[in-house]
Amino acid sequence: QIYPNLRRAVVTMYQTEGPQTFYRGLTPTLVAIFPYAGLQFFFYNILQKFSKWVTPAEAKNGASIKDLVCGSCAGVVSKSLTYPLDVVKKRLQVGGFEHARAAFGQVRTYGGLLDCIRQIMREEGPGGFFKGLSPSLLKAAFSTGLIFFWYELFCDLLCALKSPESTKRREG
Fold it and tell me: Membrane-spanning residues where (predicted)?
């Protein structure tokens, strides 16, 4: 442990490195989040259309499971495509903790986004951009699947509440 608590960490970081220390990795985060979110919806939409084509019309009762599976697959594909930017972001964010990481082996320092990309490519090759992909894909599958599952469930509930049949039922 380097800091006894979060407050001490924030104060020390601010005093030693200034306010810019809290914005490390902001550029790759912003560059990655838009394509990641867009790709999630893009692939979810494609997978939903594909599942409607594959699933027989009578088998509509498992729609929530279908949403979960389509969402999980969309999360895995979108995370795989944007993961290199996630690696760069994380490496930029851990900058400044060189003394704490020295016990874990080689410590790298980066001069910014492009320098980080160059060093990863030069020292580790293309595979360096995909280190730690497996646990990230598990997280993306679960989280994105659940997000779309709940999204579709609540959309269906709101549509059911809004439909004329439900208002007649409440009045009667």
Answer: 21-43
CB-count exposure of residue 7 (10 Å: 0-12, 13-18, 19+): exposed
Q: Which residues of the chain have pLDDT under 70?
A: 1, 56-63, 96-107, 164-172
CA distance to 19, 28, 78, 99, 151, per residue, from 35 (Å): 28, 11, 8, 34, 20
Do 97 and 160 sit in the same domain of this protein? no
- Confidence (pLDDT) at 109: 82
Alpha-carbon span 137 to 81, nearest angstrom: 11
Global pTM? 0.74
Largest CA distance in the chain: 72
What single-letter DSSP state applies at residue 25? T
Give a yes or no: residue 42 inside a domain. yes
- 32 and 63 housed in the same domain: yes
The 10 Å Cβ neighbour count of residue 129 is: 17
Query: In one letter, which amino acid is 3?
Result: Y
Q: Cα 147 from chain centroid?
A: 12
Contacts by 151-160, CB closer than 8 A, 24 or more apart: 151/67, 152/63, 152/64, 152/67, 153/64, 153/67, 156/63
Distance CA 140, CA 123 (A): 28
